[in-house]
Every structure is written in C-alpha cells, then in structure tokens.
Amino acid sequence: MDETRYYQPSGAVPILGLVLGSAVAIFLATICGFVFGVVEFYNPIIYVNFLGAFFVPAMVGNAVRSTLIKLKVRNWTFSMLLGLLTATAILYSAWWAYVVAVVKWELLSPDPTFLWGIIGLISDNGVWSIKRYTPTGVVLWILWAIEAGAIYFFTMMSVLDTPPPFCEDCDQVTTQKIAPHPFSMKDSLQMRDELEDGRADLLLASVRDYPGANCFLRLTVNACPTCDESYFAVIETVTITVDNEGKSSSSNTTTIPWIKVDAKIVAELEALIALGYFTEKVADVSDDDDDSEDVAADDE
Ligand SMILES: [Zn+2]
C-alpha cells in the first residue's frame, strides 16, 4: 500500500492570497451580513430569516473559497482561520445592522460594548412576536445562539470544502479533465488499492457500467492546465434517498480522495467514457425504502 499518491496541499499562502483573500472575505462578510441584519428586522416571516442563516453564510463562504483557490492559497489552517473571521464578520455586521434598524436608522457606533448594551435591552423587552407571543430573555438568547451557530457552521462548511488539487511544479490550480461521471457500484477497496499502486484495472473495467438508481460511484479527474504530468482522480459514493412523499435527495461521501493517476490511465478513461455506457439502463427502483439493501445488491 502506497499512500504517497494522495494529493497533499503544500501549505503555501502567497502574499497576495493572504492580503487580498482576507480583504475580500471581510468585505463580502460585512456587506452581506449588513443586508441580512436589515432583512431580519423588516421581514416578518421568521422562516425566511432562518433560511438566511443558512443561505448568507453558505454564499459568502463559497465566494471566499473560490477566491482562495484563485489566489493559490493551499493552506488548510489559514482557510480555517479566515473562515472563522468571515463568520464573525457576518455575525457582527448583521447584529450591527439589526440594532441600527431597531433604533430607526440612527447610525450607531459599531463599538462592541455599546452594541452589547443595546442587545441586552432588546433581550429584556423583545422585538418581534409570533402569534401574540413576544420572546424575551433566555428564549431570545437561545434563538440567537442557534442562529450564530448556523452562521459559523455553514461558513466553515463552505470555506473548507475540499479545493481542487494544485500542480506545484507549474504553480497552477488543476482544472476538470473528466467531468463528474457516474458508474455502477464496485468494490471500492480493491479500486483504492489499485490506484494506490498506480493501476486502475477495476476502474477501467467499470466506468462504462450503468450506475444504479439509488447508489453509485462517481469519478472526477482534474489535470494541470500547463504540464502533462499532474492528473488527479477523486471517487465519491452518491446515495439517492427517496422519502415517503417521493422527494429524492442525494448525499455524497468521498470514497477515494484526490489521488495521482498516470496520464495513460486518464487517456484510457476518457476514451472509454466517450464510448458511452456499456450496459443498459436498469429500471428505477425508487419505491424501495431500504437503502442498505440496495447498496448491498449493487455492490458486486
Ligand atoms: Zn503542472
């Protein structure tokens, strides 16, 4: 078993990435946090506000992630710290905007101790009601804590979402060579062992097998845009679940993380995929609730 083929970020933080990355993160977080705070105050539909606590941090987090990729940052710790800073800036700016809206647009000082005092007053008196109930004190604080938790969680999830591999020799971010390609469930342990050995027999033999309806593998290959030596593949397991109302949702887990593959294998994979699926499409089995059985059935 050889683990050296797995992609490892070098840890580099170019100076432009440090400065511009942080600036972009703080700028976006402050603007979007402000808008979120204002919307939260004026919009009476609580549901929309809860949705915002997911949507705003996910959107800002994604933008920060793409900025860091473009600026060639490949340091997990730096991304993590910037993610924390981004979430804090969203939360702080949202609170400031909210408090400013509460006092009818008197532009208050964003001084934390001053803000804290006003937030205390809001908590004592309550600001909004749902069915004639005006939450105050502990109830409000719990809701605020949940919201703050959501902001941190979704910001971090987005910022730290695995970036594409980087070609250190050429100082370039790799780009998609083979777009996410689903194929049938196979023995992923054997596939992994082979890839670690620099081979891909099972993968090559399977890529043209039609994916199962409920569970399948998905291959993506990235390549360096400059040289002909940096190819990386990632294999995910995608599981489709259908609930009682017939709504389907998918979840993916990384089965084999970004791993170096040889140019020859990538060329073979590309050629095979271009030929289309080898096996016929199987009928949907969407009324089957038990997922684990399907996985077992597909896993041959
Ligand atoms: Zn390269």
Explain the overall architecture:
A 4-stranded antiparallel β-sheet has the order 3-4-5-6. A two-stranded antiparallel ribbon has the order 1-2. The protein has 9 helices and 6 strands; from the N terminus they run αααααβββααβββαα. Mean pLDDT is 89; it is low at 285-300. The protein folds into 2 domains: 15-159, no CATH class; 166-298, no CATH class. The radius of gyration is 24 Å and the shape is elongated. The protein has helices spanning 15-42, 46-70, 76-102, 112-125, 137-159, 188-196, 201-206, 263-274, 291-298, and strands at residues 166-167, 172-173, 175-183, 215-223, 231-242, 248-260. It is α+β, with helices and mostly antiparallel strands. It starts with 14 loop residues before the first helix and ends with a helix. Residues 167, 169-170, 172, 224, 226-227, 230 line the site of zinc ion (ZN).
